[in-house]
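Retro notes
What went well: the complex prediction finally ran end to end.
Inputs used:
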Amino acid sequence: MTQARILVVDDEPQIQRFLKPALSAAGYEVIEALCGADALKAVATAAPDLVILDLGLPDMDGKDVISSLRGWSDLPIVILSARDRESEKIAALDLGADDYIEKPFGIGELTARIRNALRHRGKADAAPTVMVADGLTIDTVHRLVSRGGEPIRLTPKEYDLLTLLGRHAGRVVTHKTLLTAVWGPAHGEDLHYLRVFIGQLRQKIERDPARPAIVRTEPGVGYRLVVD
Amino acid sequence: MAQDDRTTHRRPDPDALLALAGKDGRGKLTVFLGAAPGVGKTYAMLARARRLKADGVDLVIGLVETHGRSETAALLEGLDVLPRMRVPHRGRMLEEFDLDAALARRPHIVIVDELAHSNPEACRHPKRYQDIEELLGAGIHVWTALNIQHLESLGDLVADITGVVVRERVPDVVLKRADEVLLVDLPPSELIERLKEGKVYLPENAGRAADRFFRLGNLTALRELALRRTADRVDDQMVDYLKQNAIEGPWASGERMIVCVGADTLSEKVVRVASRLASGLNAPWIVVSIERADQEAEGRAGIEQIERIFRLAEQLGAETRRVIGTDFVEEILKLARREHATQIVIGAPRARGWGSSWSKGARPFGSPSLPDALASRASGLGIHLVTGDREEVRTQRGLRRLPLLSRAGLIRAALVAVPLVALATGTGVAIDRIMHLPNISLLFLLAVLGAAVTAGYAAALIAVILSALCYNFFFIAPFYTFTIAAPHEVFALIVFFAVAVIAGGFASRIQEQAATARVRATALQSLYDFSRKLAGTEKAEDAIWAAVSQLQASLRRNVVLLIPDGPDLKIAAAWPPDTELDVTDMTAARWAEDKQEKAGHGTGTLPSSRFEFRPLLSPHGVVGVCGVEQTAERMDVNAERALAAILDQTALAIDRARLSEASVAQAARLEGERYRDALLSSISHDLRTPLATITGSVTSLRQLGDRMSPESRDDLLQSIEEEGSRMSRFVANLLDMTRIEAGTLKARRDWVDVGDVVQSAVERTRRYFPGRIIETGIASDLPLIEGDAVLLGQVLFNLLDNAVKYGGDEPINVYARRDDQDVLISVTDLGKGIPADDIDRVFEKFYRRGKPDGRAPGTGLGLSIARGFVEAMGGRIHAESPAVKKRGTRIVMRFSTNKTAALPLAEPPAGRPT
């Protein structure tokens, strides 16, 4: 397998300083960009497989970098962001970023996100037909959800919700994406629907619905299905 | 057309509904109306009260006079009776209705007998109907009793019928607004029977008057009045009901009346007649007085007369207007068109003549041609003429002359006229000695004109009379007698007299007009100055003070201005400044604020107060109350106008100031919020970046360290160390800033060698930033300064840190030198420099070049801490940019070694950290 090439876009030299040796050690080739313009240029010329993007850049807003990129490229983008910029995070995801990670972060978490994003991109959205998460089996071919061989009855909406999360397994799916996909574009803001349905879904599929292990909440952003 | 009417009237009339809505929350007034004393109003009222009381209604007796009649007194038993208030009045104690007790008791219904009663001076309101109005306003239902002869509009009619003038009168509006009127009726013959049996109470000394009053004819006439009033009311109620319920009917009289009045006694009659006419037509009516624009208003007596007529009209339920214009007929017709009037009522005096057309104060409506002119120019209007009798017209004339006849005025006029005529006579005699002058009378004419121009009409008249006498005495043969020999001389004297009177009249009028114009111009100028002054005020306080001084200057009276202070009012400004208000004054002021109407002296509320209080009304409600002290002299129209204009402008200015104060506070709050947001985002960014580096490096080392080269591992460890120290510096900076802000920073006062401190700070910086070139230049003759070596070192390090960050790769220069008594320390970098606009902001907290994130790392605190420290040591600090050849920044610190200049440092004020 050839080394995946990762473009790290961050204006803070000390972040670059530790990401480069760390990601190299993890088996990636690292190229650096300190501002938005450099980042766009590097994507065009160096053809990276993935971009790690800080939202606060000196020359332009990180979100603008995403929308420029998404105009002509669908390469995976992982956002580096701060906890107090929730709305920016969501905006970035809605603009087409694949995932995000909050500062400060451990390198293990970052490499996991990178692997996830690269894997999905590699398979071109062809999610596995059978997924297993915390003892729960989701079989999209037979439209069957079961735990320990016992089938679990889900309503059509609950099933749609679960498989949508499953298609993006391991990655965060924003509230807006879920709502528009399952309930239609008119309901993009009706967060309370989603809360109710996620609650019902957890009652049926989680071992301990009070401490969900399959459908995780990303506070203020969306939900993430964690597969084994 | 009938179609139209139907469609417009099918909906309930909005005005009718509004009138109904206005009554919500108010108490209801029930009036027991009788034709005369003794018909049994009190009895009927109490009998009804007992029935309601038995049903459990909360009903109390506020005041009922039983006049010692046992049958009435028996009815009082078992009813709650409020104790009366004892009020001193002319050395006696009177028992009066206790309004405050009734308000405090808050019964459902209160009975207060004798609606027409007048209160003694010490009470809040001069009239009982005003007490009752307040009770109704407080939502308490009131029952009261009234005899028809006390009704204001019937005053003259009753006097005509019975020959008894009734003094205590109740405005018609009170009865008109009553929610219910119960007629208590008794046939006159029975009433006379009761009187003979002694069952009717009469005041002791009213024997003869009573005999005249209680005659069958009188009582029958009064009974008719009472019955007719009640019937009118029932009719009105029917119409109201139909309107409110959108039922069609022929109710719409659609009549509106304009009543023209002037300063004459006939006008009073005009108003009364108009009032009866209006109530018969069920028409709203406007009483208007027209003042000529080209001449000063009536004298003081005239103004008071018009005001009295206006008050009467208002009591009878009219609206009042003052209009200024030259063409009376045109003004009346204009008003009639604007108000959609259908009827005009005007007085038609019997006196005819042209004499008044040029004299002072030509009667607005006395001019005989006015009704005729109106009749010829008005179309589609009904014109009612009210004729007066001779007596009234005479009074009217006498009234007009009154101001001329005041003794002081007469003396003043004489003082001008006599010397002028004497001078004319003297000159005439002198000239006559030298040569014979045929028309010496011209000299006297000169004297008359002189008197007229300098002292007015009275002086002119005196001069005319004196001139005629002197002319006759000295210059008409036979000389030195008042007899005239030649008939043509008689004619000449008469012509002279006439010419002198007319010329004097015109001249005096010109003089008066000029004087008036001057007064008006002065008033206008002062008002204009005032409004300009107000426009310049930003604070409500300034506007209030400006208003008080302006009021004092233009009214020449004591003034006080109060503004709301929580639930209460407080004096905001007053002239004289130490004015104090007693309880009565304060109550009147609060009344003016609460009810948004005049109160105090000269009004219906608390007239015993020294002040007349008026509310300051702005579009956002009452912003204050102005009290003007009243003296025996009433305020004239000009003063009233000035007062109203000043108060209006003041109210607006206060309102504007309040709004702008509120918006400034709002802006400050927003600014504060923005600042807090910026601060939080800055702090979180500055803490998070090193933390992210540390966490990332540590986890990388733990998880991937075995796959890294030793150099990479070493670099990661080093970056952890650096970021750790960066964070600790940031936290230290935050703490320093907190200490500076909290005022707990204590600078030590030691002798400091600046050279040593600079050297050690530079070395420390070199350790942090090994690659950077820092050049130092320290003068050898540096004196020691008094200060804190640690703080100074910290300041220098912060400055060097900044220079490293923003200085590019160019060398950094640090100089310390002596400047006279001072020591200067400067740190210069050759970076981009600071934009001129920001040069003063660099010392502000969290000022950083660039956006909140995505900029060079730094705390944004360095320079502001530096300033805090330097100032704590008694020094000064400033920034210069560009420093060298359009580039770079230089920060300069200056410390004084001069003992006196450094005194605050040497001897800090006790109890206050420096």
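What we learned: The two ends of chain A are 23 Å apart (CA to CA).
What to try next: split runs per interface for comparison.
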